[in-house]
Amino acid sequence: MSGTKLMHDGHDETSDTVGEQAFRRIRSDIISGELKPGQKLKLERLKSQYGVSVSTLREILNRLTTEDLVIAEGQRGFEVSPASVDNLREVGDLRLVLENHALALSFASGDLDWEADVVAAHHKLSSIERALLAGDKNRTFEWIKYDFAFHHSLIAACGSKSLLAIHQSIFDRFMRYHLLAASFRGDGVSHDHRELFDFALARDVAGAQAKLAAHIHAGIDHILSTGKL
């Protein structure tokens, strides 16, 4: 997946400062696995790679420690947070708590425009999943982007920008493990998404929450089955 960038939120980098662009690039490279778990983050090397000063890099890496994507080692510098089974399960649990709460709020408040966005997001995701199921393994990274877009659409009407922002951070940390596994789960994940879509249009909160729990736990089991952790 070298060279790929995790840009799943429609953000336009042209409006960012150089430092903000570097922050987004480094964050994306950690999530995508280009910067590997446990990798030492040498400031001089990063300075030339991302085109920012050492002081800016320190600010960026300290920001990333708040998302648990980077570990600060005191005088020894920084490293990419390691990947572990325990952390995967913890992140999965956090995602489930946040997303379940946001689903209930969103289903209660979503209007016709929200429904249209859910339909569009599911259509795009299901198209990518059909390609993957047909054997196009090069679409795995693209699937990550549309997977987030679909799950985000389900909770977009929750009415809380803070909840959406925290959910995105946790979702990205969860997807980091999928990208490390570099493996698509197959028919099961596609069926899960179709059921979540149906529950959303029916405003069935209990059904969606139960399906989401099964969906996340199946994702964890799949990641572990690849033996990449």
From TrEMBL:
Top-level taxon in the UniProt lineage: Bacteria
Name of one Pfam family that matches: GntR
Keywords, ordered alphabetically: DNA-binding, Transcription, Transcription regulation
Record carries keyword Transcription regulation: yes
Molecular-function GO terms, alphabetical: DNA binding; DNA-binding transcription factor activity
Ranges of residues in domain HTH gntR-type: 16-83
Protein name: DNA-binding transcriptional regulator, GntR family
